[in-house]
Design a protein that fits this description.
This protein has helices at about 10-20, 40-50, 60-65, 100-105, 115-130, 150-160, 180-190, 225-235, 290-305; strands spanning about 1-5, 25-30, 50-55, 75-80, 90, 110, 140-145, 170, 195-200, 210-215, 240-245, 270-275, 280-285. It is of the alpha/beta class. The protein starts with a strand and ends in a 9-residue tail after the last helix.
Amino acid sequence: MTKVFIDGQEGTTGLKIYERFSGRADIELIQIDEDKRKDPQERKKLINSSDFTFLCLPDAAATEAVSLVENPNVRIIDASTAHRTNPDWAYGFPELSPAYRDKIKNSKRVAVPGCYAGGFISLVYPLVSNGFIAPDYPVTCYAVSGYSGAGKKAIAVYESKDKPYEFKSPRQYALTQQHKHLPEMQQICGLAEKPIFIPLVCDYYSGMAVTVPLFPKLMKKRYTPDNVVEMLKKHYKDQPMIKVYDFMGEEELSDGFLPANTLSGKNYMEIFAYGCENRIVLTSRLDNLGKGASGAAVQCLNIMMGIDETTGLL
């Protein structure tokens, strides 16, 4: 039995990780007493008695938790932002390349991608690594997400009887272009500059759509939409958690719309390409609590354990 401790189990991501272990006979969950959840000594004891510890904590607390590790055999999977750009940590997106997968498999420290960042990187990393756009391409991204990614306080407001009127509409935020996911979005994709990023939180629980528009005239050469789709399909060939669709026109969408919530509760990602010859639009659709958080974390655990990465996820 693999011993697993979830440090921060009461948070949204921690709860979802816990749910994904339901019915798994190969996992023994180490539980912390409710009154000791913030006790450093008790957390230290449980972390060091585990084979794997998930960190579902704010950045500062995640950094503190790593400092509590004394057992050299403990392997950490961090869902916070704290270690995503640290070169000593594996970045938990195995589909990007064999090198990413191998580093996850062999590492004792893995940082799970952010939800928005995962959607963005799924589109832009292949474009840069396959030479379709240059590192200095002026990348823009807009994204919509359910409110479950906004944290416990915001969830309570969205689900309250006295929800403010403005919470009933999509709300842009991170308007100063300082969103916490930007450093990993730039670094992992190899971009010369951070992208312009426009995230919106919306009045539904979970699921997200992350969109990157492209001008073929600004790409390394004049690629067609079919060229882009062919490249993405090749890049993600045989990856069970990512599906790339054929290039689609508006008539192929449901009533001409691409909803953001259809993968709520799922652990995989879908990639769409649409638009026209002169303006290509790419969208990655996923659950911000699934492939964008807890599902990605459990997928990394499975890879580190050397078992089928889809165990407990599909």
